[in-house]
């Protein structure tokens, strides 16, 4: 079987060890000959790099491994780039969350003004790594899960339309795992129909391979409990704040019982509740810095000190399996059915062709082929049109360096009550992001 050469961009990410562990666990399904970590923060990456070097020498001595900040070294002779960069790191995520909250507005990584600010930072970083990939390995595919995926995907559509970049999110995968637990099935045995934007969509069907529909059974459970399940199902989405999010799906379903909601809709449908239940001085960024980031980096330091990884330390990230599935779909033309963020082109019949939507696709060696989801009802369509227009305005603002368009984007966001509040937030965000955003005129 062919062996692949892979670069992980954002090598210093808290998710890198979990993904590497998952790839090792799947080395028979997705054989690798080389793995390189690439990051523009050499110091941060070196901690994980050194620890993984020790681990891989023990577990996969034949796999050529290295870590580097040099794009040429990283991207030469690569088949796949797994990308999870965070431009501005947690320091800027904290600002994305806290600045809007100061104005009484949702402070979130990917939704509302925080997501818009993050989007304006991510576009440059993404273009940079796409260009590195195309310079040094023109046939390489990028599997991107860097956020905010909706804005990143729109920026790719506009600015790098021919690049081999696949945008994907793990939230639907994680929620399907919960659904499968609710009905006592294996997620692999389920096929879904779904439509929406990234972090903004609905399941319209959850069937097993024999065609039995489970959506009523799941709906009944979610109406009572949200997606909160009894047994721990995951390595991610387990902190207390995530449990609140799974639970809140109950109230999302109440507004719109027709379909099963993506948990991120809570920021658009219940912003007042979410703001009231946020701590302006301690947001999710703080929780992650004091939780996952500390755990992952201290596990790495322990491995380095001991000189061995045999006592554990790094854990397989259960979510990462979809990345292996996606890589395999491209590499071996498996025609795997997956939710992907793609240009609509009729997949949702009554939605603009040029919108980046999230729908089930069949993925083969040419990339994703979207499956038609038919016409959608007015309520969902109107919400989606408002949100997709926000995302398009952000990319236009970036390209045209337009203050006006970014102000409009914020004003249009369902999370912001008025143009005045939008302007106040924008002016604070510009100040906080001056090292990252293009200058707005
Ligand atoms: P992190 O801050 O721990 O890691 C990100 C790394 O990217 C850092 O080491 C940083 O130095 C590096 N980086 C920043 N800009 C770069 C550039 N231009 N070139 C190379 N490296 C760069 O962040 P994290 O919490 O581990 O998350 C990583 C990313 O994955 C984020 O974008 C996050 O939103 C995303 N994510 C997406 C999903 C999904 O479902 N799509 C799931 C989980 C995380
Ligand atoms: C989900 C989303 C990701 C997001 C992550 C945040 O997995 O799909 O897009 O980045 O949650 O998780 P965190 O633990 O960093 O708050
Ligand atoms: Mn996501």
UniProtKB/TrEMBL annotation:
GO molecular function: hydrolase activity, hydrolyzing O-glycosyl compounds; metal ion binding; oxidoreductase activity, acting on the CH-OH group of donors, NAD or NADP as acceptor
InterPro entries, sorted: GlycHydrolase_4_CS (IPR019802), Glyco_hydro_4 (IPR001088), Glyco_hydro_4_C (IPR022616), Lactate_DH/Glyco_Ohase_4_C (IPR015955), NAD(P)-bd_dom_sf (IPR036291)
Cofactor notes: Binds 1 NAD(+) per subunit.
Reported cofactor(s): NAD(+)
Glycosyl hydrolase family 4 C-terminal domain: residues covered: 194-415
Residues the entry annotates as binding Mn(2+): 169, 199
Transmembrane segments: 6-24
GO terms, biological process: carbohydrate metabolic process
Active site feature: 170 (proton donor), 264 (proton acceptor)
Residues that, per the record, bind substrate: 93, 147, 284
SUPFAM superfamilies: LDH C-terminal domain-like (SSF56327), NAD(P)-binding Rossmann-fold domains (SSF51735)
UniProt entry keywords in alphabetical sequence: Cobalt, Glycosidase, Hydrolase, Iron, Manganese, Membrane, Metal-binding, NAD, Nickel, Transmembrane, Transmembrane helix
Site (Increases basicity of active site Tyr): 109
Family per record: Belongs to the glycosyl hydrolase 4 family.
Name under which the protein is recorded: 6-phospho-alpha-glucosidase
